[in-house]
Specification:
alpha+beta, three-stranded antiparallel β-sheet, Alpha-Beta Plaits, Structural Genomics Hypothetical 15.5 Kd Protein In mrcA-pckA Intergenic Region, Chain A, 319 residues, 3 domains, single chain, Pseudouridine synthase, globular
Length: 319
């Protein structure tokens, strides 16, 4: 689809203009909202051009420029139920609370049909909410593939809407445990830094002024000579929020190579080379969508992920 730039659109950024001009067409073809992050990725992928040439997202449009956006229809993925063990902590007719295992992706991406939590849930329970589409059935909020711990799943659309609204209204409390490199001096703190996707990496996030606001609160649980054990609470829920925020203050999570921990696992940390990121969702509190009662779930120390226990034992032994 092509649009010719008129007087009112001169000097607009290419990415901002594209979101405004192609929003409806993108929604019709993909059933997703068009965002600037998506536009910037499409520019990098060569799907958006100006006068048949690829330009930067910040390119300032000129009179009579021709903006061409090749909108590809989204390919649907067939989700096959898989008999993958689930650690279900609570379940009723409206929702499931489970302890997600490390190494399991929550839902397939558009590029792969791998084993996922959704596949496991469909094997366990044939009916899940479908507001998020086929590949995100039941998923109210996500955890990274290598983050273990408590997750909330909706079994019907009514429950999904109420649970998701409570998250958006900050009524749901989610707390995590992490071990990061270095000594964080303050016992309590807040990281308030906006996050945005890297232009050339759709997964990795970056702190940027033009990103979405992201707020993470932290509390020091235990200090070691070379690391800090933290409790973290999300006020917002951006992709990789905790991981990127801790990296941004020079305290990346142990085992998180994507956000700067690569190379740290030397010397005293050499015994941790085989583990992934030491991050776990351990506390979840929300209002039941039908009964209205407060539901609270906590993973105590005996239910910590083995990688977290191993990391803490090593750090205590060398401190």
């Amino acid at each position: 689809m092509q649009i010719k730039i008129e007087q009112n659109d001169i000097n607009k950024r290419l990415d901002n203009f594209t979101v405004e001009a192609f929003f409806d067409e993108y929604k019709i073809k993909t059933n997703e909202n068009l965002t600037r992050n998506i536009v910037q990725k499409n520019i990098v992928d060569g799907l958006i051009k100006v006068n048949l040439k690829v330009q930067k997202p910040s390119y300032k449009l000129k009179l009579n420029d021709i903006v061409d956006f090749e909108i590809k229809e989204k390919e649907e993925i067939t989700i096959k139920p898989k008999n993958i063990p689930l650690d279900i902590i609570f379940e009723d007719e409206d929702l499931i609370v489970l302890n997600k295992q490390k190494g399991l992706i929550v839902h397939p991406t558009s590029k792969m049909e791998e084993d996922s939590l959704v596949s496991a849930l469909l094997f366990h329970n044939k009916k899940l909410s479908d507001i998020g589409g086929i590949i995100r059935q039941g998923i109210v909020h996500r955890l990274d593939k290598d983050t273990s711990g408590l997750m909330l799943v909706a079994k019907n659309n009514e429950a999904h809407i109420k649970l998701q609204k409570d998250i958006q209204d900050k009524k749901t409390i989610r707390k995590y445990l992490a071990v990061c490199y270095g000594n964080i001096e303050d016992d309590f703190g807040t990281i308030d830094k906006p996050l945005i996707h890297y232009l050339n990496k759709t997964v990795k996030m970056n702190v940027a002024e033009n990103g979405q606001r992201a707020i993470t609160h932290y509390r020091v649980i235990e200090r070691f000579n070379l690391a800090t054990f933290l409790e973290l609470q999300l006020e917002t829920g951006r992709t990789h929020q905790i991981r990127c925020h801790l990296s941004s203050i020079n305290h990346p999570i142990i085992g998180d190579d994507l956000y700067g921990a690569k190379g740290f696992q030397k010397g005293p940390f050499r015994g941790l080379k085989t583990i992934g990121q030491v991050l776990m969702s351990y506390y979840l509190s929300f209002t039941h969508p039908k009964r209205g009662e407060i539901m609270e779930f906590i993973l105590d120390e005996k239910n910590y992920h083995p990688d977290l226990i191993r990391t803490l034992n090593l750090l205590r032994s060398i401190s």
